[in-house]
Every structure is written in C-alpha cells, then in structure tokens.
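REVIEWER CHECKLIST
Item 1: Sequence provided? yes
Item 2: Single chain? yes
Item 3: Sequence as submitted:
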Amino acid sequence: MPDTPSLRTMLKSQYHAELAMLREAIERCSEALWVSDQYTNACWQVAYHTLFFAHLYMLEGEGSFEGWQGHQGDVQHPDGIGGRPDPQSGLPLIPRPYTRAETLAYWNICDQMVDAAIDCMDLERADCGFHWYKMSKFEHQLVNLRHIQHHTAQLADRLRNALGIGIGWKGSSLLTSS
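Item 4: Structure as written out by the authors:
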C-alpha cells in the first residue's frame, strides 16, 4: 500500500464524516434515551465507548494514550462498556454516566485531532501499535472507521425507533464542509 497525500486526505475526510454523524446522533438523543437502561449499554455508554476507541486508535500505540480532561480513568472499564468485573478490584466497573455536554466536549477533542494524527501516522507500519490487533497501521485505521460507523448506526437505530428521528448521511467531509 503506497502512502500518498490523497490517501491521507481520504482517511481524514472519512474520519470527519463519520464523527459528524456520531455528533448528530449525540445531539439529537433525548435525555431520557441517553441514560435509558432499556438496552444492555445506554446511549451514553455507546457514544463514549466509540469516542474512547476513536481517540485511542488514532494514536501511535496503546502507551500513547492520555485521557482528556473529563476522563474517568479510575474504573475497571474506562471506555464505558462494562466487561467482566475484576473481583480483586475495589474500583467501580464503569464510569458514572457522561452527560451529552461532556461527550460532545470529548467529541470536539477527537474531531480536532484527526488531521494531525493522520498526517504524522506511519501508514506503512507493519503493526498497528495495539497488541490485541494483529494488522498493519493502515488496516487498523479502516477498522477504527468501521467501529465508529458501527456504533453510530446503533445510536441512529435507537433514535429512529424510540423518537422517529433520522440521522443524515455524510459520505465525505469534503462534500459537506462549507
């Protein structure tokens, strides 16, 4: 895979477009749906989890992560999605619910980091920098984009079913920016 400026432009465009769709889902979610326990993971958990990993996976590797100012790292699962509890830990399983305002503040951080992260990323690197994924850095960026879209679609489906609200499609940030 040859690293070219146009490839970087396309990656940035897709990150911005997918994050824009996620932002719209967060903004349009009602307060009641945001914290509803109707689902295994509330909307706040899905949105925060998506941003947490979007942020993490745009970095060089797992050792590069530093939480944003509002990050609650003193829990067993800081991405917001509860996994298996560690019976030896005295920490809570997941953070207290993040508000939509907090999540949108984190969204801004993630969206603003896209261009610089992609510009300095070694897309020809054979490993992605995360031991739990065995793939190149470029392929891992495609996985990260798919992860954002997967969870945005979950939120969009909830909005459609619970509130009758649709989320606008953004095919490219190059086509939607003013």
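Item 5: Key structural point noted by reviewer: The chain has a mean pLDDT of 92.
Item 6: Recommendation: ____
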